[in-house]
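Bench log, entry 3. Co-assembly request; chain sequences pasted below exactly as received.
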Amino acid sequence: MTGNYRKWPMILFLGIMTAPIILMYFYLFLDTITNSPPGSLIPNELTTEHWRFLWMTIPGRPSIWVATWNTFLFASITTLIVLVISSAAGYSLSRLNMPARSFFLGGIMVLHAFPTVTLLIAIFLILQMLGLYNTLFGVIMVKASLELPFGIWIMKGFYDTVPWEIEMAGIQDGATRFQVWTKLMLPQVKPAIMALGIFSFLAGWSEFILPLVLAPDNEVQVLSVYLAALIADDNNFDMALFKSVGLLYVVPVIIPFVFFQNRLMNIYSGGNKG
Amino acid sequence: MVNTTIESTTDQVVKARIGRSTGPQLNWLQKIGNSKYLGLYLLAPAGIFVLLFFVIPVLLTGVFGFTNMSTATGITGGAYLANQSSMQALGDRHDMAALAEQINQVVYTIDETGLTTAREAGISAATLMELRAKFLGQSFDNRRDAERAIKKLNNRPANTRALKVLVKYFERSVINTRYDSKAEILAAIDGFGVSLTPEQQAAIIDVTYTGWVFSTNNFKRMISLPDTKKTLINTLFFVFTTLILFNVGFALVLAVSTHYMDAGPAGFFRSVWLLPRITPPVLYVLMWKWLAWDTGFISIILGPFGVEPKNWLLDSPTNAWTFIILINGMVGASMGMLIFSSAIKAIPSSLFYASEVDGATRAQQIRHIILPQLRFPILFITCYQTLSLLTSFEYFLLATEGGPGGSTEVWALSTYFKALNNYAGALEYGYGAALALVLVVVGVVLSILYLKLFDFKTLTAAPKIE
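Structure output for the full assembly:
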């Protein structure tokens, strides 16, 4: 449709704009396996020394494997909670009549865009009072709750696209609304559940502020807090080490992104990040 | 998990109904399944989570904003403590310096409590017996008088050191003792021989309470501090610049230019521009730091041109702002890009063909076909991202921490620093909550405005089967 226009100026222009991102990622990878002489960007030797944190714990830090396991637990349990609860609530808001329905919908929409920073202080104090400060359980509950309005909103949107006829047929055949939901509707929105699952997992994996404020101790530290603490330590500045930890940290994000890009794009267009 | 939650919350209701039902017996699952409250049951777990960690915190932020809660006051109730500083305050705030002087004194009283403690500590019984017989109930205004009295005893302590130890047991002072309730501290002062008028009591309660109290001082302070104004200006500058340059501006550039490409390169560019969004913030900012560091990319590249290596991220406010806007903008651009792209895709291609046949240039196509179609998406992104940018502080915290010298401190970041993290370690929860409350109000007002703007009714159309 645009055959009359030359394409290369556009590609050249965007290529230049995109170069910094590509450059940053390229060097993220390169610097973890090579050494460069000072003041140069061209490496002169291959090395594995930047990955030593895998087999020897950095003094004063938890083991990288503890942090990785914590991060995995944090992201996966959060995802599970978000999926189960928002697929139920989303269906309920999409298809069922109930008292105060539009109040709930409006509430979900307002909360969906609600800033974390405004809740953080109160949540911090509440967890302290409940004795859940510095526990993974506490921070998982908080993260799941904060993801829920978004998850519910997305699930509602996907349920909305399923034709009513499927449900009406089910009702005609004598199924209850509950059976219609579990047996007919859930299979219809499987792709949505998958997309929301990946999204929640990535959101949990990347989360920084909540674990930083609510669970900063070594035993419950997640990778984001681990890496941030490493970088903030002025006495042991080692950019290649930071990048190696960072690369380990980002691999579980990049792989699903490469495979499920299109599904994720759907969700990110309704995303909630600056 | 859903099933079990529903079971437990509704079991009672269902049993009660089954008992009364006259129609064909249904099992409980069918009962719930057909209940007209099924919607509420399915919503209940979400409701509980959201209520506990979302709605209640918002409300509590409102409450905490009107308190002086801090690390000094603790977060639960406090105690009553008369010490140097509270006595100073009694003089300064209530003009009761004389009273403070009285309370500040230490007296020596020979009483049963002191005698018992002394006996338990192993002071000779003969000394204590004699002390009790001669001086029980007597008070001495200072240590010397008390010591002189004890020295007159027949069974007096063997040496001066033992004497000093003994006297210590009878030292009575309100100063530096923690009392758990108002009544206790007042009783203690009363027992100390100072009788208080009601105003004096109120004043003492006021200055000695170590817990938090309700006050509107946070807001007065917010208005009076010059920092607030600076932070506000920084925030507005950041939000509008980033929004115009990246979240809307550059997002439009991306959407339109990928529209004029083949599927391959278009997909590639869109994926690459999503990378900043999906990269964990800590790592994303680390990569920027590598770019800006004094041993990093920019310094190395500019080295041969005679530019001194320096930390470009923090060397001047202008550079810091440039990086902050780039860091946030490159993340922000992708959402606009996705939404604008799908809006452009929805334009019938016949429009493009027809305009090309009529000899329209690319600029004319963009101006007259694409942009008019994007009016609504642009409005949406503007609204949505204003709120996101207004409250984002993660990238600030990781990149500049508000530096250099507070020049990139925005509202949300200062909230975080006041209440949850600062170098002095004195966390002001109350003041932080008050700052956050301002964001809550702005957020709620903007959200409601947007709901009105984007036709809430179509989003909440009523269900068709009922």
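The longest strand of chain A covers residues 34-35. DSSP finds twelve helices and two strands in chain A.
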